[in-house]
Write a structure and sequence with these properties.
With 144 residues, this protein is mostly helical. The chain has five helices and two strands. It has a two-stranded antiparallel ribbon with strand order 1-2. The model has no long low-confidence stretch (mean pLDDT 80).
């Protein structure tokens, strides 16, 4: 059992997957910082200082006017946090765009495969059967 586990772990795809998950987690932190520290302020400037990540509607319950999303959530009221959702969508779009660019760069860096020359076509089934027939016919012909 230990040998099977060792063989499983040593496969390249398992190691690649683990590395991908670790890099993905680190990449998520970078993108989150990009959105919250760089993109949100720019959107805020363009929208007149509005920070979308803290926007919400109160569906039911009592929440004082103008409190932050965290305080509203802690109050136990039903909150429709559309700003937080919009920022998650922006996060996703940025991550998807960067992954798209990375895949394009990696595919561009891979060596181009040269088209393989096709092997010459062998004889058809009919041609082989005709050759076999001719060989058998030569064997059965008596030689004098």
């Amino acid at each position: 059992m230990l040998q099977e586990f060792r063989t499983f772990i040593q496969r390249g795809n398992v190691i690649d997957l683990a590395v991908g998950i670790i890099i993905g987690a680190a990449f998520t932190a970078i993108v989150s910082s990009l959105v919250s520290d760089l993109i949100n302020p720019i959107i805020g400037i363009l929208t007149g200082g509005v920070d979308f990540s803290d926007k919400y509607f109160v569906l039911s319950g009592d929440v004082p006017e103008g409190v932050s999303l965290d305080v509203a959530r802690e109050s136990g009221a039903a909150i429709f946090a559309y700003g937080s959702f919009l920022m998650a969508v922006v996060n996703f779009l940025i991550i998807a765009w960067v992954v798209f660019i990375l895949v394009k760069v990696v595919n561009h860096m891979k060596p181009k495969e040269t088209p393989k020359e096709e092997a010459p076509a062998g004889p058809t089934q009919e041609e082989l059967l005709a050759q076999i027939r001719d060989l058998l016919a030569d064997r059965t012909t008596p030689t004098l």
